[in-house]
Write a structure and sequence with these properties.
Structural class of chain A: alpha/beta
Organism (chains A, B): Membranihabitans marinus
Distance between the termini of chain A: 12 Å
GO molecular function (chains A, B): oxidoreductase activity, acting on the CH-CH group of donors, NAD or NADP as acceptor
Largest interface: A-B, 38 and 38 residues
CATH class of the largest domain in chain A: Alpha Beta
Order of helices and strands of chain A: EEEHEEEEHEHEHEHEHEEHEHEHE
Number of helices of chain A: 9
Largest sheet of chain A: 7 strands, mixed
CATH topology of the largest domain in chain A: Quinone Oxidoreductase, Chain A, domain 1
CATH architecture of the largest domain in chain A: Alpha-Beta Complex
Keywords (chains A, B): Oxidoreductase
Strand content of chain A: 25-35%
Radius of gyration of chain A: 20 Å
Number of domains of chain A: 2
Protein name (chains A, B): NADP-dependent oxidoreductase
Shape of chain A: globular
Oligomer: homodimer
Chain lengths: 333, 333
């Protein structure tokens, strides 16, 4: 069986490219006592990983050059030298971009056989779903009848936020970057209004029309100019949930823009960043809520699946060009 | 007895000046049933009032041109046509800049005779003390051993924040604009380090040295470039309390600066604006805590008192030039 790994060949400067990655063949390691040998089934590509490519302090340590990229992986146990873990079990964890690897099972969560397809453990019922759930529910605290604006709304996190906000009884205004996406948001995910920021000439005006009672919660996946159009519309006691700032991830210096502090004072408003691991002690609560909505048909599954381990770098680069709907996952075959 | 009022003569464009105010003599009104007639003793000048001079929606309605300026006043009741209020009582409320006026007592709070001098009801035991208390305790949530940075630290709110943060067992780094103020902050108010931003050539470096373990709470009264030096030093889960943005109040267009959202995401940090009236249902809790510390000698009284009703416009203008220590109050005589 071929074993392959994808390493960080060099750190990107600005927009990443395929040159930043290196795929190579390696030996399959021997399973030591206490370890399991796993074969990757689905591998996740996520915007936050761009941050780990920089050599700077952040919420997770940076990737090392000439070492494997790491990210969310659903894998099957091929061999277990650990109690409580059995051959054939499906597991999920932050693992290397590698076809077959050994791992200490403390780093793994079991994926229930009810999660079908198992890639959902990386998306709606996994990291991105939990990101949407905790950010919206804990920081955003949406109340029935409030207006929730979501940027990057057709993305992996945004699509779940739109749906949870509708479940909470909110008016939802979704922002995305193509007519295909806005149609999907309005027709499939239930957004009240979806705006294509690429074709709308005056986003401020369009948002004012879409939010006649102002904005109570802004769930921001994007940052930059889209946020500059949304933030002036916030109401008293608004909550701005900062999930990602993908528009700014490839900047090489600190970007400038309109200062938000004066408006936050005027509106007694809150802005808070977070990462899903801040909620690691509440994962069970999140999974239970998401699974419940999913089983009731209130939460739709939305994934773009790319086939082929060797497509991982290309799939990662697609995150920054917006050419996808929902969660982007690579199926290893 | 002369009666006088100070009106808004015209809205300031940028930095306010004495031309924006008009002092004039008026008749003393007759007290109607249900009203009280009060004589102003101390009148407060506060930075937030600059916002009310603009013709735009904010947390309080704008002042009207050719109508009295309004702000915090401690007054004595000269005549009462309302039950429960007696001649000689001291009261506090948002009243007109006027020597003698009639008022409906629903708008008043009694000032306890134990509050000595009664101007404290406008400062440490009144609006600015409560602003410090709720902002720091509710939003900042300082924990023992954490590092708290305070900008505008020698101001009315800042000076109380410094002292409460010390009471909470924090390391306190205070920023102010003169050596007189930094000496006062270190020697009188107990700041661990006080930095004069006007003479410090590299604030970023000075702050790094003063905060070897990073910044957990930043209580910001100022905004602008000082915040730009503090914010990059925040720790994971830091809280940025936005109380005022005096550096930006006189701006005539939306100021630009480094975007903070990417860093808030990286550090899972919170930034929240507020105004003391957000806590109007908890005033008693705040006054009790502040009075307790004041009686124990843990909280020092710090006021700059200007004498003369007609000095109100000048006193207000001093807020923007920084030439004062603690709370600026005008004693009417």
């Amino acid at each position: 069986m071929i074993n392959q790994v994808i390493e960080l060949a060099e750190r990107p400067d600005g927009q990443p490219s395929e040159n930043n990655f290196r795929i190579k063949e390696i030996e399959t390691p021997t399973t030591k006592d206490g370890e399991v040998l796993v074969q990757s089934k689905y591998i996740s590509v996520d915007p936050y990983m761009r941050g780990r490519m920089r050599d700077e302090k952040s919420y997770m340590p940076p990737f090392e050059v000439n070492a494997p990229i790491q990210g969310g992986v659903v894998a099957e146990i091929l061999e277990s030298k650990s109690d409580n873990w059995r051959e054939g079990d499906l597991v999920e964890g932050i693992l290397s971009w590698q076809r077959i690897q050994t791992v200490r099972p403390e780093l793994l969560r079991k994926v229930s056989p009810q999660v079908q397809p198992s890639s959902l453990a990386l998306s709606t019922l996994g990291m991105t779903g939990l990101t949407a759930y905790f950010g919206l529910m804990d920081i955003g605290q949406p109340q029935k009848g409030e207006t929730v604006v979501v940027s990057g709304a057709a993305g992996a996190v945004g699509g779940v936020v739109v749906q949870i906000a509708k479940i909470q009884g909110c008016r939802v205004v979704a922002i995305a970057g193509s007519d295909e996406k806005t149609t999907y948001l309005e027709n499939e995910l239930g957004a009240d209004v979806a705006l294509n920021y690429k074709t709308t000439t005056d986003m401020s005006e369009a948002l004012k029309t879409a939010c006649p009672e102002g904005v109570d919660v802004y769930f921001d996946n994007v940052g930059g100019e889209i946020s500059d159009a949304v933030i002036p519309l916030i109401n008293k006691f608004a909550r701005i949930v900062l999930c990602g700032q993908i528009a700014l991830y490839n900047e090489t210096s600190i970007p400038h823009g309109p200062r938000v502090a004066p408006l936050l004072v005027k509106r007694s408003a809150l802005m808070k960043g977070f990462i899903v691991t801040d909620y690691q002690n509440q994962i069970k609560e999140g999974v239970t809520a998401l699974s419940g909505w999913y089983q009731q048909g209130l939460l739709k599954h939305q994934e773009t699946v790319v086939e082929g381990f060797e497509k991982l770098p290309q799939a990662f680069l697609r995150l920054f060009t917006g050419e996808k709907l929902g969660k982007l996952v690579v199926q290893v075959n």
